[in-house]
Amino acid sequence: MKYSPTFLSFFSLIILFFSCSQEKPSYAIVQGKVTNLSANEINFKLGEKVLNFELSSEGTFADTLFIDEGSYWTIGAGRNTTKVFIAPGNNLNFSLDGIKFKEPQAEGLGSEATNYLTKKFLSQEAYKKSFDVMSFYSANEEDYIQNVEDKYDQDLALLKEQKNLSAEFSAMELENIKYSKLMSYMSYEEGHKYFTNKTEFDPSAAITDKLNSIDYDNQSHFINFESYRNLVVNHYSLIARDNERFDELTQKIRNLKSPSIKKAVLNNLSFFVSPSNENLDQVAQLIIEESDDDELKNKVANDYETMKNLAKGKPSPNFEYESADGNQVSLTSLQGKLVYIDVWATWCGPCKREIPYLKEVEAQYHEKGIEFVSLSIDEQKNKQKWKDFVDAQELGGIQLLADNDWTSEFVRSYSITGIPRFILLDQNGNIIDADAPRPSNPALIQLFEEYI
């Protein structure tokens, strides 16, 4: 919809006049202007609800949102997104700059909440610049708890500094901040294991007790709070990773009352349709039975058929790609040795973190009948960049570049949608593990020792 500024001002006054007798308005007036961005429309999203507004030739928009309660909305234009808060009775004018889209400025009734969210975003960005993820998760429990609580106190202080925030928003934002803190506690176990290689580590009650009272089935909080969404999805992922807890996972998913949470959890569970999952059959069946999303169900059904062919003992799909030294190397040419394949890319941070461990494992096992193959899915246009990286990092083994990045036949044959991905094949080219442990995981050494 398009309105002139003059009409909008008049329209706003009419609505506000007739709303005087209402105890609680059921709408908010939103308008604004987008600069430094080529876009024809802008959208406001809340959960599954998406409202599209046409932009004028000057980049302006204006409309009325009919809403019952205050909520955190996502504004999107092209690939740009940002967070704002809109409540019934608000009359908001947004300034959105394509160069700094995540830093919206708001004026008008109710603008304080959105301007606080911009300050919060800038504060988080400043925090990230000095944040050392390895040191953070490597800390012992006492220091970790102190670090998390310090960050929580900083977030609370920023909230309390703001003037004229509504009681409704302040209460919601307090919940949002609490969920962020709880997410830090939930992620400690996995983070500590990864960065310290203490694979048998279990956090004490000082950590786990903080998570006992969380309600993982709150529809309103799931729609509003990104921190809560991360908490919920991660909670079910942790259960899904434990093969012995599959019956518990099934029961929890079937009992979910929130449609948004159930949809998100089932979507995330589709990543567990993996050849290394002992519950592959049951996971695929659960998603197909419980999901209302036909697209997801079809994808899972197709992935399941692929994964069955990647089970232990099945022949591996073949490949033939160019190596860093210009030779063509095929999988069949490597038969007679165990083959450990690392699917990675130069732009992938987690992939690069595995490089020191990979070098160490290769030095230990290369002479014991294991061929180490690193298959990059960098784009062909970045071929020289890949070669330069291989040389600069003095990468060993066989360094290959896939012919068509993510859509390369070998990558698609293994349904690889995330990297790094590791694969172990036997001397005859048959699959031992289509989703093998990373070099940083001591379980890899145990697996090697079983087959050499």
Give a description of the structure.
There is one protein chain. The protein has 452 residues and is an alpha+beta fold. It is 45% helix and 19% strand. It is built from 17 helices and 15 strands. The strands form 3 sheets. A 7-stranded mixed beta sheet has the order 10-9-13-12-11-14-15, with helices on one face. Strands 4-1-7-8 form a 4-stranded mixed beta sheet. Strand 5 (71-77) and strand 6 form a beta hairpin. The chain is globular, with a radius of gyration of 26 Å. It starts with a helix and ends with a helix.
Summarize the structure.
The chain is α+β, with helices and mostly antiparallel strands and 452 residues long. The protein has helices spanning 5-18, 111-129, 133-138, 141-161, 167-196, 205-208, 219-224, 226-240, 246-255, 259-269, 280-290, 294-308, 349-353, 355-365, 383-392, 409-413, 443-451, and strands at 27-35, 41-46, 49-54, 60-66, 71-77, 80-86, 91-97, 105-109, 320-323, 328-330, 338-344, 370-376, 398-401, 421-425, 431-433. The chain has a seven-stranded mixed sheet, covered by helices on one side.
